[in-house]
Amino acid sequence: MFMEPTHPCMTDIALRKELVALGQTDRSIARAVRTGALARPRRGAYVDGPLWDGLADEERYAIRVRAAARQSCTEVVASHTSSLPFLVAPCWGLELNDVHFTRKDEKSGRREAGIRQHRGRLMAEDVVEVNGLQVVSPLRSALEVATLSTVESGLVVLNHFLHRGDFTGQQARERYEAGMDMWPDSLRTDLILRLGDPRIESVGESRTYHFLWTHHFPLPEVQLEVRDGSFLAYLDFALPDLGVWLEFDGRAKYLKYRRAGESVIDAVLREKARESRIAELTGWRCVRITWRDLADPVALERRIRQVIASVAAGRRAR
Questions:
Q1: Which of 38, 137, 139, 275 lies at a 20 to 30 A Cα distance from 86?
Q2: Closest among 299, 163, 152, 145 to 211, alpha carbons compared
């Protein structure tokens, strides 16, 4: 899955020399920037001002990547974090200041003016084209991001691609062990590959799984199926021995599974009814986790352990 040609990030980018050739001057260009008619994502590169004002940070970053590629004096491929917007992948927790390129001439990389050029051997299957821009493939992107990111943000990216089916965990492992394990800063990559799970569907779920791992909870059963005669539900993370399951609650989840004609409130109420039925069938308690919970892991760990202790006490009493 690649960024659509009609996406706002694929807007036209005009370089200074092109505007000058059309009759503009440095003074008229500066005036257009001051009035908001133009925006300058990078020095010497300009886009429509109102469009730029309406973009999110990740979308502005994608435009900066395209502008830097147009200004490059050597043939480069958008790589590492800079490939993610064009592969329609999340950038959660990743630094979006520098533009990352891999040089196709295999010469030494360098860092200047907000651009990091990396040296690396690119195989034919490592490069895809997205609307005229050369970008590293999802597989290479996931392995590259792991060299720059935390384990948590690298896991978010890896799980996104695994769940989407861009490649398998085995393919990622084989590519890593075919020489990328010797790359600088690649030590955490092995750990990220071991934690990756294609059943994990979203950024919030990947972060929840990472939270459980870092806080030494038992390894959960992911997407455990529960039946009530026929299919009832998949549980995000189940801890059957402890009598608990965990669900990540993001607004996007309710929007995704909202039925025709339902409001978000209707979807929430239906989810609550589903939770009650699961509890009746399994005897387990549900812990719902939100973005705010993940922002305070100490309090979240305390709450989950309190629920586990409460379930254990109830079992002993029975």
A1: 38
A2: 152
CB-based burial label for 170 (10 Å; 0-12, 13-18, 19+): exposed
Tokens for 149?
Answer: 């990111």
pTM (two decimals): 0.91
Tell me which DSSP letter residue 29 carries: H
| Residue 27 vs residues 53, 96, 267, 288: alpha-carbon distances, Å | 22, 30, 55, 56
| Unique residue bearing structure tokens 């502008």 | 67
Identify the CA nearest to 206 among candidates 225, 191, 188, 222: 222
In the DSSP assignment, the letter for residue 290 is -
Place of tokens 């993370």: 237
Indicate the SS3 state at residue 4: coil
196: nearest Cα among 176, 217, 215: 176
What are the pLDDT digits (tens) for 72-101? 988 999 999 999 999 999 999 999 999 999
